[in-house]
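Hey, can you fold this one?
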Amino acid sequence: MRVVTAFNRILRVPGAWVTGVVFDDDDGVVVSIRARARRHRCPCGWSTSARYDRSRRRWRHLDAASMQVWLEADIARIDCGRCGRVRTEDVAWARPGARHTRDFEDLVAWLAQRTDKTSIARLLRCSWEAVQRVVTRVVADHIDDRRFEALRHIGVDEINYKRGHKYLTVVADHDTGRVVWVAEGRTQAALEGFFDALGPERRQRIEAVSMDMATIYRDATRRAVPHAAICFDPFHLVSWANKAVDAVFQKVDRRSSQLTGREWRQARYALRAGAERLGSRHLELLAVIEADRQQLFHAWELKEEFRALFQTVDADDAEDYLRDWITRARGSGLG
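Sure. Predicted structure:
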């Protein structure tokens, strides 16, 4: 069997056939291929039989018998009638702009889900930067823009990584609970990138956006979807209520109380935790506080009533409930 025929059967390069094989002591195995299609296709999908110019290019492929394998082929640049500019043609065996084949990149992406990039770079004998670029390309290739089609109610928040020194902006679909966008940084630009990807038509469908009380995301949202309601998420609002309870707790004179120092520490947890999470001992401590320190107990009651707004109050009654709660909180004398 001829070497070319053997490599054709072994590699099975999509959209191409093998025309030559060279074994090189420095490079490994260099496999020359030629595209089967006679028309050149732009990454946007437009195709033509004419070319602007052409050049010779190599793509790193999966190793064979511990030897590096390279695919080499002529690749054309075309004057795209849809894009209105000269672009490099799309090939079946590699992603646009890549210097590695799809098979090689898919292996890198699979490994990246299971180990660190340094180990991948050592195993596959490529640079750490190449691994990073491959992962970025594969993720972009597999993200389906159809996830944006049904967006109506979204939530925006940030998470930190690397010991809290760096942030990611995360956008989630409230109706499905799925993450639909992640961008580096906790900035307006990070969220604006999401709205840009959404496009004008899909932005018009957004009805509500939940977020924390920081102005970073609020300003970007008002510019991109001025018609959408901005909602502050319950987690941050309840945390404010807990801080208010803490402020009352700090002012309470605990020296003349029936509770010991250890019991006050337990009581502090009881005051901050949700009522549904409290055990019998915590409820006993709250009963002592109700009899001994009424203001602190009233602050806890107000906090729990505020939590009920997001848990048990009917949506039709929520506005009246909140107005009544605000009136009672203002008149409590706890501020």
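The mean pLDDT is 91. Let me know if you want another pass with a different chain boundary.
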